[in-house]
Amino acid sequence: MYLEPLKADSLVEAFVKRFEELIISGKLTIGQKIPSERELAKQLGVSRPVVHEGLIILEQKGLVSIRPRHGVTVNDYRRQGSLAILQSLVSYATGQLEPHILESLLDTRTLIELETVKLAAQHRTEQQLEEFRAIVTEEESLMPVQTQAIVDIDFKFHHLTALASGNVVYPLLLNSFRQVYTNLTYQFFLDMDVVDFVFTHHQKLAGAIAQKDSKKAVRIMSSLLDHGQRHLKTFIQKQQLKEAL
Question: For residue 38, is it within any domain?
Fold first, then answer.
């Protein structure tokens, strides 16, 4: 059963977070009916007022619909969700994402990163070039088993690319997606064979940006992102098969 007793400083916040994660991960599906307040309180080990308040918040976010005498059902958050659920999505830092959400995030990343690297090649400063070189040098010192350090330096590289674009919004967007972004890249870098490919492409990207060759930079970034998406999806599929056994 997906419901276990809750323990947290704020039980209402814990309740809301639990159900956000269940919906984002696809464990609760669109149209699925949620157990009654009494049953939820019993399964989660909390009071009915905690459950009631949590459900009200979930309804305000557009995640569920509450109908008197009909109970609570999961909404299609794409139609009824708000910026609040987007914030929940980008803060999701554990577990597996529902497949359509994963695809949407990867598509959004591609859209943003191809644009930022093109602009970075056009607008980068000399100071930013030094930062790119420093990152590439640091990457050369890392071992493939240092997964967390690799995740951190990878984010640093892509965030610097957004900064170098000269667009104020792009680095803010990347920062907003940091939790879910690094959750995915951590899973990706658990396959140590991909590390050399990524770092080699970072070196090539830094060179293209230094040369102000935006077309070359876009080609290299496209190759890097395509490679990452294929390997990430393969890795996730293998993990899901293991969990199913």
Answer: yes
Cβ 142 vs Cβ 149: under 8 Å:
yes
Domain that holds residue 196: 97-244
With H, G, I as helix, E, B as strand and everything else as coil, classify residue 91: coil
From CA 71, how far away is CA 38, in angstroms rounded?
A: 11
* Residue 142 per-residue DSSP state: -
C-alpha 104/C-alpha 86 separation (Å) is: 12
Domain count, the chain: 2
Percent of the chain clearing pLDDT 70 (strictly above): 84
Are 129 and 198 in the same domain? yes
197: pLDDT strictly greater than 50 = yes
**Tokens of residue 20, six digits:** 């956000």
Give the helix/strand (H/E) hosting 64: strand 64-67
- Mean pLDDT computed over 98-123: 88
Q: Is residue 1 part of a domain?
A: no
SS3 73: strand
DSSP states of 153-220 as a string?
HHHHHHHHHHHHT--SHHHHHHHHTHHHHHHHHHHHHTSGGGHHHHHHHHHHHHHHHHTT-HHHHHHH
What residues pair up with 73 in beta bridges, in sequence order?
A: 33, 65
| Predicted pLDDT at 93 | 46
- pTM here is 0.68
